[in-house]
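Notebook p. 47: complex prediction with heme C.
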Amino acid sequence: MKLAKLALAAGAFALTATAMAQPKPENFVKERKAAFTLLAWYFGPLGAVAKGEKPFNKDDAVRATNFLVPLSKMPWEGFVAGTENVGNTEALPAVWSNTAKFKELAGKLETEMVKLQQTAAAGDAEAFKKQFGAVGGTCKSCHDDFKKK
Ligand code: HEC
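Predicted complex, structure tokens below:
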């Protein structure tokens, strides 16, 4: 019984691996949008803390930023060539023509997010609020140049 279950699980994995080998162009768009959606989901509520509308809570900030650090690395692999005008993408062609700038801002997001995680882990409310602004500014500068309004 146990063995049969294992064999089934292995079979399911093999199927998934095959299905994933060649993602369709629209699935790359889904991947990047999903990553951004989750980024906004965990990042957005921290804005109330940054604005002083909600008290800083170390546990909440640590939990959110522990999700945000890996999430900040995820959208980029969805921006493959050939997905410029696929599906309902809001990405501007500049992503593929000004790649150096896009990559620079993507890297900046990752770096600034790690710093946000560090201020959360240190329980430093003031540094956290300040660093929230640095991350938010990075979201904005990329959207200004690379995302449809
Ligand atoms: C390096 C560039 C870049 C950075 C940095 C960036 N974004 Fe984006 N974002 C984009 C692009 C490009 C799109 C459009 C993707 C698409 O529609 O294919 C997008 C789309 C989105 C969307 C819409 C997702 C959807 O379902 O259509 C949200 C929400 C979002 N970003 C939030 C954020 C947040 C929050 C941050 C910062 C924590 C951030 N982004 C940082 C480039 C960036």
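Notes: The helical segments are 2-21, 25-43, 46-50, 58-71, 94-97, 99-121, 125-146. Residues 29, 32-33, 36-37, 39-40, 43, 89-91, 95, 102, 105-106, 109, 135, 138-139, 142-143, 146-147 surround heme C (CB under 6 Å).
Next step: compare against the earlier run before touching the bench.
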